Amino acid sequence: MGILKKSLLLLSILGVTSFALAQDSVIKERTKLFKNGKDIGFITILTPVDVVKKQAGKVTIKVKGYRLENYPQMILRDIKRKELYAEFKDEKSSNESFKTVKKHEDDYGEIWHEVEGVFTIDLKNIAKNPDKLKLKAKKTYEQSCSMCHHLPASNAYTVNQWPQQIESMMEQVTLDPHTKNLIIKYLQQHAADSK
């Protein structure tokens, strides 16, 4: 009986560890979201997700975020920090894909929905090593953005200010969309108000 209890305890610890690792998953690149086999939108690079199930080259993920009641197609990190997590092709796809956990009113009287939804993506689009991807983002920022001027610290601007700062530099340096989005997401996740 003692061996059985120890085995069950070990299995439960392993199960908790696997679940904890699943919560630390991030998206490796801009990726199409599927619901019932239909392409309904995309999820952005470095967006955190919970891995629910892996099967045959596909992975089922849970996405959590916030969306404006009047514009439900965009899922953001939260009400104040407008880091884009996902965007849907139309309002219907978004409404059918998410359940509202709670409603919130912001300082301007706008209603926000705290939401979560489950989607399927290709397994290859989950970063195998999130820390390695984040380090790549940091190095890409440092190399790309220090060529012309002093490199601002990642916490020099807020989550909402960084996209505009990077866009303003696009006249001086050419970045492909993947690299630009990687840098923006890295900076948003290390911004002055990111915690």
UniProtKB/TrEMBL annotation:
Which superkingdom does the taxonomy of this entry point to? Bacteria
Keywords, sorted A to Z: Signal
- The protein here is known as Molybdopterin-containing oxidoreductase III, DMSO/TMAO/BSO reductase family, monoheme c-type cytochrome
Q: Which residues form the signal peptide?
A: 1-22
